[in-house]
């Protein structure tokens, strides 16, 4: 099934065209969701229409679905509200019919076709290509058990957790970027504007004073240049990490950007704690939604964004399939002793396990928050130190410049 753009006219216009008559109904363009071109042609003929052009639907370059995360939460929240008085399929169809964004209405055409054909609710949602595997698994478990209201609540909590993590990282990165830009501009200004102007001014000084100023300027040039090289290297590294992260995000295999970041002090700790916190919270929501434990662990393994996380969840899944109880399987490897002890105290996977997993996730999220705050503080202190050093060098150079200027004035008065 795919989207097709069909241009057609009525039989009356076709007949008029055969007889050389230019009168008739206008050409109509419509988007259809069908398996192939032949099906589109047959559907139009069955409606008494004459196909003129049929081609695969191409999304206009100017169209936009808007913010993806915002749209995800809008649909889930609308389903939570409307499904209280009607079926989930009817609620989903109403959402599609009243969507004001034209690009989003086009994207919802496959979903409406699945609903019209009597398909499942999750099958219709899946055609949007909007939600990740954990969200779809939560909704599928809710549909199968008849507990969609709880599934919508868990799915909304999962989406809020995902956006919250990115919001925290974005805020920290933005603050560091502002500090970096301020310090970099000061160091670059000293290197490429202030030092050359001082060197030019030394030509009007006495030989002794010019030698002192040029000697100091040469030393400052090397020292400030080293600072500029370090800052430039850090900037290029950050840009490379961002580019690799964007290119490899969501793809299978180890992400080079994540591997580099995990080796960095404090950043690696934050990533390890936050990744485990997200996985534990995701597993808790999947279990609460009624997803079987082996399937939930398989989802955690597949969506893990680094090799270490995938190895932990894959090992846990293998131990469970070998007959090890879920709590003991998760406690072996990757967890602190007190976390493993907490897991071993659970007896009921459906009721107690999600509570313990949430507790572990809260603790790991707290430790991740402390790590990112420590990294932000260290970067702030580093930027302040570099900026202070650059200012001191500038003040020293200005003092030498002032001494030279006073020497010139004294000679002129004599």
Widest sheet, order of strands: 2-1-3
Query: Total domains, how many?
Result: 3
Compute the gyration radius: what is it? 32 Å
* Element pattern in H and E: EHEHEHHHHHHHHHHHHHHH
Terminus-to-terminus distance: 95 Å
How can the largest sheet be summarized? 3 strands, antiparallel
Write down the overall geometry: flat
Q: In terms of per-residue confidence, which ranges show pLDDT below 50 for 5 or more consecutive residues?
A: 16-23
User: What would the average pLDDT be, to the nearest integer?
Assistant: 78
Count of DSSP strands = 3
Tally of separate helices: 17
Helix/strand class: mainly alpha
β-strand amount? 5-15%
Helix content: over 70%
Describe the structure.
There is one protein chain. This protein is mainly alpha-helical and 414 residues long. It has three domains: 55 residues, Ubiquitin-like (UB roll) (Roll); 93 residues, Receptor-associated Protein; 253 residues, no CATH class. The chain has a three-stranded antiparallel β-sheet. Helix 12 packs antiparallel against helix 17.
Question: What's the short version?
Answer:
With 414 residues, this protein is mainly alpha-helical. The protein has three domains: 2-56, Roll (Ubiquitin-like (UB roll)); 68-160, Receptor-associated Protein, CATH 1.20.81; 162-414, no CATH class.
């Amino acid at each position: 099934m795919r989207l097709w753009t069909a241009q057609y006219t009525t039989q009356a216009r076709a007949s008029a065209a055969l007889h050389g008559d230019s009168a008739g109904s206008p050409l109509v363009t419509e988007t259809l969701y069908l398996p192939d071109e032949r099906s589109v042609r047959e559907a139009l003929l069955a409606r008494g229409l004459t196909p003129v052009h049929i081609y695969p639907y191409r999304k206009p370059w100017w169209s936009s679905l808007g913010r993806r995360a915002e749209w995800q939460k809008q649909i889930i929240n609308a389903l939570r509200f409307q499904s209280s008085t009607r079926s989930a399929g009817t609620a989903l169809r109403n959402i599609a019919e009243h969507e004001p964004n034209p690009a989003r209405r086009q994207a919802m055409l496959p979903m409406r076709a699945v609903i019209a054909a009597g398909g499942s609710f999750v099958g219709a949602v899946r055609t949007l290509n909007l939600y990740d595997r954990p969200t779809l698994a939560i909704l599928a478990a809710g549909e199968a058990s008849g507990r969609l209201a709880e599934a919508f609540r868990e799915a909304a909590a999962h989406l809020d957790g995902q956006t919250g993590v990115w919001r925290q990282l974005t805020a920290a990165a933005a603050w560091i970027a502002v500090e970096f830009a301020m310090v970099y501009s000061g160091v670059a200004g000293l290197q490429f504007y202030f030092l050359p102007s001082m060197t030019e001014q030394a030509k009007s000084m006495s030989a002794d004073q010019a030698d002192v100023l040029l000697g100091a300027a040469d030393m400052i040039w090397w020292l400030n240049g080293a600072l500029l090289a370090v800052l430039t290297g850090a900037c290029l590294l950050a840009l490379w990490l961002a580019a690799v992260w964007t290119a490899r995000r969501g793809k299978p295999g180890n992400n080079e950007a994540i591997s580099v970041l995990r080796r960095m002090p404090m950043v690696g700790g934050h990533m390890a704690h936050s990744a485990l916190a997200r996985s534990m919270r995701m597993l808790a929501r999947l279990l609460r939604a009624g997803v079987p434990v082996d399937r939930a662990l398989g989802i955690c393994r597949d969506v893990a964004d680094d090799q270490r996380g995938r190895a932990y969840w894959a090992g846990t899944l293998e131990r469970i399939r070998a007959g090890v109880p879920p709590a003991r399987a998760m406690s072996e490897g990757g967890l602190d002793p007190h976390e493993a002890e907490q897991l071993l105290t659970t007896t009921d996977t459906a009721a107690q396990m999600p509570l313990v997993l949430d507790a572990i996730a809260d603790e790991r999220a707290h430790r991740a928050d402390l790590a990112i705050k420590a990294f932000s503080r260290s970067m702030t202190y580093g930027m302040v130190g570099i900026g202070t050093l650059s200012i001191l060098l500038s003040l020293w150079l200005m003092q030498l410049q002032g001494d030279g200027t006073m020497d010139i004035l004294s000679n002129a008065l004599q």
